[in-house]
Specification:
By secondary structure, this protein is mostly beta strands. It has one helix and five strands; from the N terminus they run αβββββ.
């Protein structure tokens, strides 16, 4: 099993020991980029359904503290497509 297979189907930001999706939560899939295959918990989003997200990751172009940028897919709101990486805030 490689790293991509290991991450697929796991929840972004969840504890590594228990990163499986929970039946009482709603998820969107991250497609492409450094977080490809991870699930994003969108259950309690305060602004309704976000159209874009900026997620902290050490796997992207900017290393630790960098961000991966994802945009909700218009035809399929359950997927967010990768749009690039950004440096983190210092």
């Amino acid at each position: 099993m490689d790293e991509a297979d290991f991450m697929r189907g796991r929840v972004y930001g969840a504890d590594h020991d228990d990163a499986s999706p929970r039946p009482d939560r709603a998820y969107a899939e991250l497609v492409g980029g450094p977080l490809d295959g991870l699930l994003l918990d969108v259950t309690d989003t305060s602004d309704g359904d976000p159209s874009e997200v900026s997620l902290t990751t050490e796997l992207g172009r900017y290393g630790p503290g960098g961000r991966a940028l994802y945009v909700r897919r218009p035809a399929d709101g359950r997927r967010f497509d990768w749009r690039g990486d950004a440096p983190g805030v210092l």
